[in-house]
């Protein structure tokens, strides 16, 4: 397991933001464009703050979430709202947001359109993932209704999943899309997640969905 341990969370967030910006810069110089895929949840806010202040050719960066909770954008549970408030501002305000939400009663109603929009920006240049203590990543939750299909090599780019631990229905990038990313970083903090990720290494992908990217990823951890 490739794990970097940082002295504290502030240093982790700054160092990882710097690493991500450097990798995006390489894609921009080489291809004239780049894509950045990021988690929602409670952990990545400080990285978003740091990234939004970086001088990059943000107009040519497509930004999208790993997954979204099927709630309106004004909900405090909306990951899109977090992105808008913390990442897509300052220098990064001109980045191109690729949506994972479009108002409709069920995520299935919007899958075709959202998938088409996303497919144009694959493969992902830089993928940042979070992880829950139950070893889910994106919205690939252990025990989710369609988990096996979402882990399969031939899964579509986006799927709608439901899981008890997830709360509301979710829309998520699937395992093959995550695995195909050029650079993969996992951001975790605290003792519980450290124990969980070490445990995941010995489990199957359905028991520990984070396993799907574990061999390719760099894990960034601070207490
Ligand atoms: O919508 C979400 O919840 C995320 O994208 C999810 O995969 C998240 O990264 C983990 O659940 C960790 O969440 P925390 O950072 O809040 O612990």
UniProtKB/TrEMBL annotation:
Identification of the protein by name: 6-phosphogluconolactonase
Gene3D superfamilies, alphabetized: 3.40.50.1360
NCBIfam families reported for this sequence: pgl
Biological process annotations from GO: carbohydrate metabolic process; pentose-phosphate shunt
Pathway: Carbohydrate degradation; pentose phosphate pathway; D-ribulose 5-phosphate from D-glucose 6-phosphate (oxidative stage): step 2/3
Record-level Gene Ontology MF annotations: 6-phosphogluconolactonase activity
Protein role: Hydrolysis of 6-phosphogluconolactone to 6-phosphogluconate.
EC main group: hydrolase
The organism's place on the tree of life at top rank: Bacteria
Catalytic activity line of the entry: 6-phospho-D-glucono-1,5-lactone + H2O = 6-phospho-D-gluconate + H(+)
Keywords: Hydrolase
Catalytic activity, EC: 3.1.1.31
Residue span(s) of domain Glucosamine/galactosamine-6-phosphate isomerase: 8-221
Protein family per UniProt: Belongs to the glucosamine/galactosamine-6-phosphate isomerase family. 6-phosphogluconolactonase subfamily.
InterPro entries according to UniProt: 6-phosphogluconolactonase_DevB (IPR005900), 6PGL (IPR039104), Glc/Gal-6P_isomerase (IPR006148), NagB/RpiA_transferase-like (IPR037171)
